[in-house]
Design goal:
Shape: globular
Helix content: 55-70%
Distance between the termini: 85 Å
Strand content: 5-15%
Oligomer: single chain
Order of helices and strands: HHHHHHHHEEHHH
């Protein structure tokens, strides 16, 4: 039997539609909706404290969250953020314990990055990094997210990062004024000479110099010892 071009095309389209339908069947819509809500909670107060957020947007955030300007005064916004982060983390831990990392297959994109974001903002990165590594290896999240978490984990451990994704702030002594001032830099990088090659292999689209500039920092190579010497002790 001879199959016409139109029949072949119809068959291919049928397979495509079937495959798409099967893929959609695997998405847990309830979990996706919950994670999208967690993402909004994670981001909205961070948007409020961002210096680039306009006053009009801050007013919108207050209306959306039900807080008043007075509620956020005297640093209380950071206390509220810490509480919200803790609640979010507890829920993400429950989800991972029950069904593993909620990745692309389960909740689609970009919702597959929500659990990563919550963990990245927590003090349990080392606990969950193996889970993130596995999710990256199985293409459930982009490898760039694995790299960013690894860099943050290394920085928290006082070690050199690998991909140059982490910017650190600390108080240093201004030798001109003799006063303490807050200063940002790209945290020291292991094998800084080849970091741009490593970044490219990991999937980053910018060089370390371009990335630092996007974060408002001029890139300069520092060692751990130099950072230690520059930092003012309390």
């Amino acid at each position: 039997m001879v199959i016409s071009c139109m029949q072949k095309y119809a068959f291919i389209m049928l397979l495509f539609v079937y495959g798409l339908a099967k893929a959609q069947e695997t998405i847990n819509e309830d979990l996706k909706k919950e994670l999208d809500g967690i993402y909004k909670i994670d981001q909205i107060l961070r948007e409020y404290i961002d210096n680039e957020t306009s006053d009009s947007r801050k007013l919108q955030i207050l209306n959306e969250t039900g807080y008043s300007k007075e509620d956020f005064a005297n640093g209380n916004v950071y206390k509220i953020l810490k509480i919200r982060d803790s609640i979010n983390l507890n829920r993400i831990e429950e989800i991972i314990a029950k069904q593993g990392y909620p990745g692309k297959t389960l909740v689609g994109e970009p919702t597959n990055e929500v659990a990563w974001i919550v963990i990245q903002h927590s003090n349990k990165i080392a606990n969950y990094f193996p889970v993130i590594q596995e999710a990256g290896a199985s293409n459930e999240i982009p490898f760039t997210k694995v790299a960013m978490m690894q860099d943050r984990m290394l920085m928290y451990e006082g070690k050199e990062q690998l991909y140059g994704t982490q910017v650190s702030g600390q108080y240093i002594l201004n030798v001109t004024t003799g006063k303490k001032e807050f200063w940002y830099c790209v945290w020291p990088i292991l094998n800084a000479e080849s970091v741009n090659d490593l970044r490219k292999e990991a999937g980053f689209s910018t060089t370390i110099e371009e990335y630092a500039q996007s974060m408002g920092v001029t890139y300069k190579k520092f060692t751990l010892e130099e950072i230690k010497e520059l930092t003012v002790k309390d």
